[in-house]
């Protein structure tokens, strides 16, 4: 195992212990499911990426291709699908807030709210396109 792989192994072990700690702490604080997801989903993804980097030094290319496919499907199921569901769930409430000028700290943000919404959808479309490109590379 190279020095770089041992660093990834160290971070994988740290993430293995710190992720449940943050999840349990969030539950005790009474955080909503949405807050838990947005706070801790990236830690789970980073854990699997660091495990993949460690396994890359030990496994051959065929096994790593299977692991990458499993990791991609896991990312879709654990990361992308819940994020889209949360977006669709919260979007109508946020649209109601957008119609009230008192919800904004700056009056200029109220005037450009639809422009900001277009930017949000452009970022969402770009993220979905990058996800599609990743799918084409992995499979």
From TrEMBL:
The chain crosses the membrane at residues 6-25, 37-55, 67-91, 112-132. Keywords: Membrane, Transmembrane, Transmembrane helix. This is Uncharacterized protein.
């Amino acid at each position: 195992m190279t020095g770089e792989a041992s660093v990834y192994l160290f971070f994988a072990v740290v993430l293995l212990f710190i992720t449940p700690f943050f999840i349990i702490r969030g539950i005790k604080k009474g955080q909503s499911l949405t807050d838990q997801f947005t706070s801790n989903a990236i830690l789970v993804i980073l854990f699997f990426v660091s495990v993949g980097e460690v396994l890359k030094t030990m496994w051959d290319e065929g096994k790593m291709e299977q692991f990458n496919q499993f990791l991609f499907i896991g990312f879709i199921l654990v990361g992308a699908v819940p994020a889209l569901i949360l977006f669709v769930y919260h979007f109508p409430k946020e649209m109601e807030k957008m119609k009230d000028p008192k919800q904004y700290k700056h009056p200029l943000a109220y005037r450009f709210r639809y422009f900001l919404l277009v930017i949000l959808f452009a970022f969402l479309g770009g993220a979905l396109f990058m996800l599609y490109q990743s799918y084409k590379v992995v499979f």
